[in-house]
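Feature request, filed as a ticket because there's no other form

It would be nice if the structure record came with a short human-readable summary line next to the tokens. Right now we just get the raw output. Example of a typical job, pasted below so the devs can see what we mean:
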Amino acid sequence: MVVRLDPGDEVLESLRSLRDEFQIENGFFIGIRAVDRATLGHYNVDSQSYSEETFTDQFEVTAFNGNIGPDKIHAHIELGTESFDTLVGHCSGARVSGTFEIVILIGGTPLNHQRDKQTGLDVFEFR
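Raw output as currently delivered:
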């Protein structure tokens, strides 16, 4: 499945809507293009917590990838700035500035998550 998002669209909200509409329980995705706001996070295994920061500017999205399960969407993003620096991290939000293209690949195994006690991360629960 290939999807194009328009200016002002919220990327993760759009993915959640697609997941619900097409009942996606086992997808992986990749994407590129441009956003003007993104909330990035980094996970600290020792404290088992995310630190997040929201960035606003005109960013080229050079990489956007993750997975879609029935209970969670997990995304990472790489942003390029006008000065050719990069910002990377877990993506908990992004707003499209120009356009955004996403390819969703559907697999055969449902991607349910469960909390791993050792790391505190949500990991796949394969049955």
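Something like this underneath would help us a lot:
The chain is about 10% helix and 60% strand.
The first helix runs from residue 11 to 22.
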